[in-house]
Amino acid sequence: MQTPYDKNCVIFATFAVMMKINDEIKMLAFDADDTLWDCQSWFDDVERRCCQLLSPWATAREVSEGLVNTERKNLSLTGYGTKAFTLSLIENAVKVTHEQLTGDIVQQLLDMGKELLEFPTTPLPEVEETLKQLAEMRRYRLVVFTKGELMDQEAKLQRSGLEQYFSHMETVSNKTEREYRQLCENLGVAPEQTVMIGNSFRSDIAPALAAGAWAVHIPYHVVWAMEKSEEFPHERLRKIEHFSEILDVLT
After folding, report:
1. What is the 3-state secondary structure (H, E, C) of the chain?
2. Is the pLDDT of residue 180 over 60?
3. Minimal CB count within 10 Å: which of 127, 170, 184, 229?
């Protein structure tokens, strides 16, 4: 049985290793949605409104479960992002209403999807202040590495006002070990010289570690159903609660 003392030793050892490689780190890669700004809460709100809209035909649970299943089925065709979500939203509504969907309801669902293309991407607490300090150090290359739709992700970064702190943004259809290795190759940085920072263990942490990079996990209070996964300890992994703790990990 692991004791609190043992757990503390693991945490300290992980932190110590990060400290030792500080001089070798050249690039900090940041996830975007739910790391730099809130995103999933807006999608959850649309899902709740959709459940209310379709309440004459099904319960909220039935609508939500159907939506997740539809998204999962469509993933290989549509990928991730707002437009993919909107298509699944409408397709699921067709199924739930047994093809009795009216033009008025379709329009409401489309309007909800368009809202998700324009919601305010206000930086989360401590994000801008921390990025500013990291940029002023001139020690690391700061980049955004995210998945989804190119135009949508670029627009979010622009709306956030954080674009000035990053020298590069890369949007991919998915984040696997291959994409992390390709990011490092594209920017001329070795994986072991890279730290990936993000909220999703499935997309930001596990594949980055598999590629040989370091990772800082900042869990967010809401998680998309398809991003949920089991976590595991790793010598190149640091878990923090507040964005500003990134400075403690690196300095």
Report:
1. CCCHHHHHHHHHHHHHHHHHCHHHCCEEEECCECCCECCHHHHHHHHHHHHHHCCCCCCHHHHHHHHHHHHHHHHHHHCCCHHHHHHHHHHHHHHHCCCCCCHHHHHHHHHHHHHCCCCCCCECCCHHHHHHHHHHHCCCEEEEEEECCHHHHHHHHHHHCCHHHCCEEEEECCCCHHHHHHHHHHHCCCHHHEEEEECCHHHHHHHHHHCCCEEEECCCCCCCHHHCCCCCCCCCEEECCCCCHHHHHHC
2. yes
3. 229
